[in-house]
Automatic annotation (TrEMBL):
The gene is SOD2. Keywords: Manganese, Metal-binding, Mitochondrion, Nitration, Oxidoreductase. This is Superoxide dismutase. Residues 25-106 form the Manganese/iron superoxide dismutase N-terminal domain. Destroys radicals which are normally produced within the cells and which are toxic to biological systems. Destroys superoxide anion radicals which are normally produced within the cells and which are toxic to biological systems.
Length: 222
């Protein structure tokens, strides 16, 4: 098992406003478990590369894009501001999505949720098994790279399933509040499952952190 090793001290700075009102850089969040803790369902090599390389790259690129945007804003350079929007969306979405994803997983996960979340799933999808089948099918069906999501529609007070392309953030794309995200980019599974995405999706249900998903659900109901 590969132990957790923080990727970079500079990336562990908390993203917050400093004493003088200056925005600190976005940071790579620590994982709440070792890289090998999700084995055999997701192996340690995948987790280390996914966290230390892929998520870290989104953080670095987001910080760089935001710095360039601030400079363009100060200069009144609208052309550059507009040109930076795709980088901000892609890297910002990658940072948001992965920060949720790590907490949605747990070595003590799997099984079914309990309480109000389970009742809501039964109400909105008919049963937990039907919900699981639908989210799996939507995730399998993502063309190219993207995410399958369980989200909360606050206006309708209902759960909904959606897919997002690339690193598009769920809330910014659909208005749904993200509860559970399944990363179906190949870097999330290829080293272990090759190009057989359905096998990865079958395995990931064994490490879903339903306590975290429930906490998110209860928070967005308030």
């Amino acid at each position: 098992m590969l132990p957790f090793v923080a990727c970079s001290a500079s990336r562990r700075l908390s993203p917050a406003w400093g004493a003088l009102g200056a925005r600190r850089k976005h940071s790579l969040p620590d994982l709440p478990y070792d890289y090998g803790a999700l084995e055999p369902h997701i192996n340690a090599q995948i987790m280390q590369l996914h966290h230390c390389k892929h998520h870290a790259a989104y953080v670095d690129n987001l910080n760089a894009a935001e710095e360039r945007y601030r400079e363009a804003l100060a200069k009144g350079d609208v052309t550059t501001q507009v040109a930076l929007q795709p980088a901000l969306r892609f890297n910002g979405g990658g940072h948001i999505n992965h920060s949720i994803f790590w907490t949605n997983l747990s070595p003590n996960g799997g099984g079914e949720p309990k309480g109000e979340l389970l009742e809501a799933i039964k109400r909105d999808f008919g049963s937990f098994d039907k919900f699981k089948e639908k989210l799996t099918a939507v995730s399998v069906g993502v063309q190219g790279s993207g995410w399958g999501w369980l989200g909360f529609n606050k206006e309708q007070a209902r759960l909904q399933i959606a897919a997002c392309s690339n690193q598009d953030p769920l809330q910014g794309t659909t208005g749904l509040i993200p509860l559970l995200g399944i990363d179906v980019w190949e870097h999330a599974y290829y080293l272990q499952y090759k190009n057989v995405r359905p096998d990865y999706l079958k395995a990931i249900w064994n490490v879903i952190n339903w306590e975290n998903v429930t906490e998110r659900y209860m928070a967005c109901k308030k």
